[in-house]
Design brief:
Number of domains: 1
Shape: globular
Order of helices and strands: HHHHHHHHHHHH
Strand content: under 5%
Number of strands: 0
Structural class: mainly alpha
Radius of gyration: 23 Å
Largest sheet: none
Distance between the termini: 68 Å
Helix content: over 70%
């Protein structure tokens, strides 16, 4: 066989091994591309309380005339916002409560957020887990084994505690071998209290939005989210962490 023929055979043999490696990064590249395009188009400007205050009457009228379609559009928008890591989860949840009521808004938001977070989790796991494993080596394996002992409880605490960014909690479990179904179950259960709390706030925010629109001032989360709500979330997280703490104490007491 000639040198050129041998080189062609070698290249053909390399492609099946090379392409899967490149394809592993495709999901995270799509997410980064979508996030960049979204910011360039200024979509983040529409995911604010100020935008809701300015368009609240038009949005309510559209929901009243096309409720099923409006709920479907909201579901898709929320899912994409979470999947593409747009920092607007709390504001969008208030949107849902304002437009559809706390119950419908809370349910639709919880489902969309869980699916969107799972998309981001799978993308991060497929693209970055091998790279991180090579960089951190044994240190990552120790973290992985510790996290895998009770992944559900750890995730539940992270979801309940409002001190951790939603985006960070979405991708962190991808580096510790957490199963997708465990991730989805802990995410759905963990975000329910916060989701319904923010949806409830959204259901009663119309007077605040109207006053802000008439006064021409901006509306922020600090105007409606009280310190008591934050303390309540922290207490829920502490309660969820009790089984983990008790289990660790029992292990320490063993000879």
């Amino acid at each position: 066989m000639s040198r050129q023929g041998a080189r062609s055979v070698a290249q053909m043999n390399e492609r099946p091994n090379g392409w899967p490696r490149a394809l592993k990064f495709l999901p995270i590249m799509v997410i980064l591309f979508g996030l960049t395009i979204g910011y360039l188009l200024g979509l983040h400007q529409y995911l604010t309380l100020d935008a809701l205050a300015e368009r609240r009457l038009a949005l309510l009228g559209y929901v009243e005339a096309n409720r099923l379609l409006a709920v479907s559009l909201y579901f898709v928008v929320y899912l994409l916002a979470v999947a593409f890591a747009f920092p607007a989860a709390s504001v969008l949840t208030i949107f849902g409560g304002f437009l559809f009521g706390w119950l419908t808004g809370g349910i639709v938001t919880a489902l969309a957020a869980t699916l969107g977070a799972t998309v981001l989790f799978i993308a991060a796991r497929s693209a970055l887990s091998d790279l991180l494993r090579r960089k951190l080596g044994p240190r990552l394996e120790r973290l992985r084994s510790g996290f895998s002992e009770d992944a559900f409880s750890y995730l539940l605490v992270l979801r309940l505690a409002p001190v951790f960014p939603f985006f960070l909690v979405n991708i962190a479990p991808a580096f510790f071998g957490v199963r997708t179904r465990t991730y989805m179950a802990a995410t759905l259960l963990g975000i329910l209290p916060g989701t319904f709390a923010y949806a409830y706030l959204g259901a009663g925010i119309d007077s605040v939005l109207a006053a802000a629109a008439e006064a021409g001032r901006s509306v922020t989360l600090a105007d409606i989210v009280t310190p008591k709500i934050t303390i309540a979330f922290l207490l829920l997280a502490a309660v969820a962490a009790l089984p983990v703490v008790i289990r660790k104490l029992r292990l320490l007491k063993r000879p």
